[in-house]
């Protein structure tokens, strides 16, 4: 018994980097999108909030994860109205394909009405899922980020909009533009954001090998991919978040982030 633990435990500890690769257990970082043309297209899950982050951030609550989203100027949907189709992802955690938890939109600095602007005029948005099934319970938050066009233009994705959407969020963390075209799997960044008395310190590492570097089978690939740049560049931004300041009142009650 002791011998087994001695040899097995270090192996698992070393293998855990704040999330489990869905592909190692039948899942995928490519979502299933309903009603695409041609059928069966996917969107990339291109940003992961590490399960090694402070537990405040990993709670799917308004004081927790949604306050971190607010610190990045993202909030729930305009008046809780769901726009667009529901995508599904299998994170390899034993739950199989699961509907997105919610769609979260860039709020243009206005937590209350800004996501209505995003719905109409387009902009950055993401869907998310939590890897919390019993066979890979990392608690990590998996996000499929893309920058979309306006409602009038049918909410298509802008040119290079998956890679750019991911990097705009990282840019919002660091406070300066991320060089999307020169990123590699050794790119790292860090920055600090705050909301409602919480200050978050985020460390970002770009990883390859989790997503394919491809345009094949990617939703809207005809318009998203451009010369020499695949619709999906094959990189995932892994973000580890630590809380460096908590409000002395210990709570943030007034943020209704419409997580429904
Ligand atoms: C998933 O979303 C679809 C709508 O896109 C809905 O019909 C279905 O009931 C949802 N499944 C669950 C388990 O909520
Ligand atoms: C996993 O996270 C989702 C989204 O917050 C939640 O609805 C679900 O209840 C969680 N499942 C478990 C097993 O904790
Ligand atoms: C912050 O996000 C917005 C919306 O996605 C984007 O327009 C802006 O360029 C981002 N800032 C940086 C520095 O990347
Ligand atoms: C980084 O990418 C290079 C090629 O682009 C590859 O050879 C290398 O294995 C990758 N490293 C990691 C840690 O994924
Ligand atoms: C706690 O304080 C922060 C500012 O430090 C404020 O934004 C928040 O609304 C307060 N929460 C409560 C429950 O009073
Ligand atoms: C993705 O593939 C293209 C060639 O198709 C290559 O130029 C680019 O460097 C690759 N991106 C990454 C991040 O490896
Ligand atoms: C888009 O994906 C389809 C597969 O669904 C593929 O046949 C097509 O070549 C791709 N288009 C581009 C521009 O990569």
- Give the class from helix and strand content and strand pairing: alpha+beta
What is the CA–CA distance across the termini?
46 Å
What is the ordering of alpha helices and beta strands?
HEHHEEEEHEEHEEEHEE
Binned, the helix content reads 10-25%
Strand segment tally: 12
- Biggest sheet layout: 8 strands, mixed
- On the 0 to 100 scale, the average pLDDT is 88
Tell me the number of helical segments per DSSP (H or I, 4 or more residues long): 6
Strand content: 15-25%
Integer-rounded radius of gyration: 18 Å
Strand order of the largest sheet: 2-5-6-7-1-12-9-8
**Shape assignment:** globular
> What ligand molecules are bound, each kind once?
2-acetamido-2-deoxy-beta-D-glucopyranose
Ranges where pLDDT stays below 50 over 5 or more residues in a row are: 1-14, 252-260
Oligomer: single chain
What is the count of structural domains?
1
Itemize the secondary structure elements and their pairings.
Layout: H1 2-15, E1 47-49, H2 55-58, H3 65-71, E2 74-75, E3 88-89, E4 98-99, E5 102-106, H4 114-121, E6 123-130, E7 141-148, H5 161-174, E8 188-195, E9 198-207, E10 213-214, H6 221-224, E11 232-233, E12 236-245
Parallel strand pairs: 1-12
Antiparallel strand pairs: 1-7, 2-5, 3-4, 5-6, 6-7, 8-9, 9-12, 10-11
The structure holds 2-acetamido-2-deoxy-beta-D-glucopyranose (NAG) (7 copies).
